[in-house]
Every structure is written in C-alpha cells, then in structure tokens.
Amino acid sequence: MIGQKMEDLINNQINAELYSSYLYLSMSAWCSQETWNGFAHWMRLQAQEELSHAMKFYDYLNERGGTVRLAAIEKPNDTWASPLALFKEVYEHEQKVTAMINAMMAEAIKQKDYAAEIMLHWFVSEQVEEEANASEIVAKLEKIGDSTGGLFQLDHQLEKR
Q1: What is the pLDDT of residues 3-33, one digit of tens each?
Q2: Among 44, 50, 110, 131, which lies 20 to 30 A Cα-Cα from 124?
Q3: Residue 161: pLDDT above 90?
Q4: Are 22 and 76 in contact (CB under 8 A)?
Q5: Which domains does the chain have, with CATH numbers?
Q6: What b/e string do you get for 13-37 counting C-beta neighbours within 10 Å, with b at 16 or more?
Q7: pLDDT tens, 70-112?
Q8: The whole model's pTM is what?
Q9: What pLDDT does 80 receive?
Q10: Does residue 42 contact residue 87 with C-beta atoms inside 8 Å?
C-alpha cells in the first residue's frame, strides 16, 4: 500500500504529464499551422511520449493500491512568436517537470518508499534526456537566428525523429 503523501504527489504528476502532452499537442498544432511540419512532427511524438509517462504513473499507483484522482488539465498556450520561443518554453517546462520528479524522489527517500524510488529512477534519467534534447534544439535555433535556410534545415531534420 502506498502512503497518502506519495499518492497525492503521483496524482499531481499524472496531471502534469497529461498537461505536458496537451501542451506539446498544442505546440504541434501551431507548428502545423505555420507550416513547420518537422517541428510539428517532433512535438506530436513528444505529446505521445508524455501521455505514456502519465500512464506509467497511473499504472504504478493502481499497482500499489492507491487511488487515481484525475483533475482538470490546464489550457495550454496556442500561439508562439517563433520556433525559438516555442522550444524555449519546452525547455523551461521540462525543467519544471524535473523539479517535480526530484521532489517526488526526495519524498520517497524520506518515507523509505523503496518501490517508489525504484520507479522514479527511470523518470530521473528520462528527465535528463528530455532537458538535453530541448536544450540542444534551443541552442541550434539560437545559432540559426534569422536564417530561413537554417530553420528549414532543422525543421527537416526534426521530421526524421
């Protein structure tokens, strides 16, 4: 049986992961509207990945005898000034998610909830990858600047994800 504090944190994380999926789907839609099809593809796959993260927490909570409590998902933005602004938001969002995962890990350690620690190790590693991917794209977009050719090239590269 899982403790109430961990159950609450995991339910909050389910909501955060669902919001992440919703946010990236909104970003994908914007990219499509702006005819950045590679960026749209990358975001759509990212939205699917975030949904799978929510389901990992969902399944874990059920396996531990907890109660899943789904809350309303906040409405995400639907407009960005540029692909750079969009990916800067992705990076900032992933940093926020990392902080949430780290807080859960700290609580699991505090409560000596070894099962939660083991489950959360995967998410800690995943967040390192998520932040690195977003940071790399931001760095590339900053180097590209106003180069239309560079934007098209990166868009084409991200379409191959």
Answers
A1: 999 999 999 999 999 999 999 999 999 999 9
A2: 44
A3: no
A4: yes
A5: 4-158 (1.20.1260.10)
A6: bbbbbbbbbbbbbbbbbbbeebebe
A7: 999 999 999 999 999 999 999 999 999 999 999 999 999 999 9
A8: 0.95
A9: 98
A10: no
Do residues 53 and 20 touch, judged by C-beta distance below 8 A?
A: yes
| SS3 sequence of the chain | CCCHHHHHHHHHHHHHHHHHHHHHHHHHHHHHHCCCHHHHHHHHHHHHHHHHHHHHHHHHHHHCCCCCCCCCCCCCCCCCCCHHHHHHHHHHHHHHHHHHHHHHHHHHHHHCCHHHHHHHHHHHHHHHHHHHHHHHHHHHHHHHCCCHHHHHHHHHHHCCC
User: Which amino acid does the sequence have at 59?
Assistant: D
In the chain, the amino acid numbered 146 is: D
User: If you search the block for the tokens 């098209």, which residue do you land on?
Assistant: 152
